[in-house]
Write a structure and sequence with these properties.
Helix content: 25-40%
Shape: rod-shaped
CATH superfamily of one domain: DNA-binding pseudobarrel domain
Oligomer: single chain
Strand order of the largest sheet: 1-6-7-3-4-5-2
Distance between the termini: 166 Å
Structural class: alpha+beta
Largest sheet: 7 strands, mixed
Order of helices and strands: HHHHHEHEHEEEHEEH
CATH class of one domain: Mainly Beta
CATH topology of one domain: At1g16640 B3 domain
Radius of gyration: 52 Å
Strand content: 15-25%
C-alpha cells in the first residue's frame, strides 16, 4: 500500500510540475493576474476621476470685456438720462390755399359754389357730356382720391384703366390716371389739385370733350358771386 501510494504521489507531483512549466511557457499566470486586476469588484472600488472630483464652486468675477481694436483706446460710453426739449414743427396745411387743417366749408358756401357751377353748366355745349363735383377733404388732401359718378363713367369713359387729360381754363394740360373699375382719378390728381389750390367746398365741372380728355371749370368756395360770374364769362 505504501509503495503504491508513493508512486501515485510522485506521478502527481510530476504532472503538476509539467503543468506549471506549460503555464509558464504560455504566460498564463500573468494573464490570470491581469483578469483579476480588471474584475468588477476592483473596478467598483476605483471610481472614475469625474466622480471623485469635488463640486466646484462658481465665483463671479469682474473682467474686462474684449473690445474692438478700433475703440480699445477710447473711453467707454456713458449713459445718462437727459431731458430733451420737444421742438414744435409747424403743421403742413393739407390744402394748397393755406387754409388751416380744421377748415371746412360751410353748407351755405358749398351750396353757393355749386349753384354757380350749375349756371355755367346750363349754357355749356350739350353735345359734350359733363358733371359737377363738389370737393371734400379727401379729394383735395390726404389720399387725394377723386371718385367720379358711376353712371357717367359707364356711359362715357373707357372701360379699361388708362391715362386721361384734364385741361384747365388757361389751356394747361394735366395727365391723370383713370381707374375704370374704381371709377375715379388716382395718380396725377394730387398734382392737379395742388396746382389749382382746390379746397373743401369748391365746385368743379368736368366736361368730356374727347374720349379721354376733360375740360375743367373751377368755382371757388371763397369767391363772391359777382367775381365768379365775371371769371366764368
Amino acid at each position: 500500500m505504501g509503495v503504491a501510494n508513493l508512486s501515485y504521489e510522485e506521478c502527481r507531483r510530476k504532472r503538476v510540475e509539467e503543468n506549471k512549466k506549460r503555464m509558464d511557457a504560455l504566460n498564463l499566470p500573468l494573464l490570470s493576474q491581469a483578469l483579476l486586476d480588471s474584475s468588477p469588484s476592483k473596478s467598483k472600488s476605483k471610481s472614475s476621476p469625474s466622480k471623485q472630483a469635488k463640486h466646484r464652486e462658481m465665483k463671479k468675477q469682474l473682467v474686462v470685456v474684449r473690445r474692438s481694436s478700433r475703440v480699445t483706446k477710447q473711453p467707454g460710453p456713458v449713459y445718462a438720462e437727459v431731458l430733451v426739449n420737444r421742438v414744435a414743427f409747424p403743421k403742413r396745411f393739407s390744402s394748397a390755399r393755406d387754409y388751416p387743417d380744421h377748415f371746412f366749408a360751410s353748407d351755405e358756401a358749398r351750396k353757393n359754389a355749386f349753384e354757380r357751377a350749375e349756371r355755367l353748366q346750363s349754357v355749356l355745349e350739350p353735345n359734350y357730356p359733363n358733371f359737377i363735383k363738389s370737393m371734400v377733404r379727401s379729394h383735395v388732401s390726404g389720399c387725394f382720391w377723386l371718385g367720379l359718378p358711376s353712371h357717367f363713367c359707364k356711359e362715357h369713359l373707357p372701360t379699361n384703366d388708362g391715362v386721361m387729360t384734364l385741361i384747365d381754363e388757361g389751356g394747361d394740360e394735366y395727365p391723370i390716371i383713370y381707374l375704370a373699375r374704381k371709377t375715379g382719378f388716382s395718380g396725377g390728381w394730387k398734382g392737379f389739385s395742388v396746382a389749382h389750390k382746390l379746397a373743401d367746398g369748391d365746385a368743379v365741372i368736368f366736361q368730356l370733350i374727347k374720349p379721354t380728355t376733360c375740360k375743367v371749370y373751377i368755382f371757388r368756395v371763397g369767391d363772391s358771386k359777382e367775381d365768379s360770374d365775371s371769371n366764368s364769362s
